[in-house]
Amino acid sequence: MANTKTFKLFHYSAHDTTLIRIACSLQDTTNDGLLPPFAQTLVLELLENEKDKTFHVRALRGHPGQTPDTGFHFAWETDWQLKCMDAWQQAYNAVDNTCPVADFVRFVQWSAPPVTSKGYCYLDERFLQLINCPAGGIQSGEAPLPLSSGCQYYRKRCPSYACERGYMLNSVSLQCVCVSSSCSSVSTGTRRLVGRFIDADYDEVAMPQSSGMSSASVAAVVLGSLCVGILVTAFITSALCLCSRSSKYAQLEQP
């Protein structure tokens, strides 16, 4: 892989507690799976068959020696077995720890389906540079920015995390489009429709404060008005009750 641009390597460093969860997702109940040795390494390779252009996953796992007498020499675990699942929901041992991508995904979804995409979609600055997505985005109506294949792949699978704050992903063009005044470079009064909607919402929220009254003052006025309304209602109700009683007494006193 050295000095080539054909392959891309994603490296993740984690604690043994993370490796245990990966082992459980792969249904690995061996000692090295549930109690990972120090510096255990798991490699997942995405391979393409040159003949039929299908994609496969190959998994490798290994670790260095754990005692001084081993010289801490690293070796792959030749007895480790990857499992996959075919379209008929039948699990099988992958030959040479290699199986079609669909079978690998199917097995993981059956074994331990993820409840969030954060673990899959989170990328730090190094990986963001690797997928080469453009920073920021475009204004509505502007020409689209060129996107690398890696950037398109990421945005299709992680739409909620594909754009910076203030931008929204267009699911068709895969462009991050500005939907906030914070990223709009258009002067006030000439903003596009989306920007006007956002400003209208902001003005509606800010209207009580623009009258020179604080939030506490507004709340006090509302509460005071409610109390006055309750008192007036009670007074009217009492007056009606008294009039009704007086009328009844007058009828009883008549000979």
UniProtKB/TrEMBL annotation:
Transmembrane parts of this sequence: 218-242
Keywords assigned: Membrane, Transmembrane, Transmembrane helix
Q: Which Gene3D superfamilies match?
A: Phosphoglycerate mutase-like
What is the protein named? Answer: Putative membrane-bound acid phosphatase 2
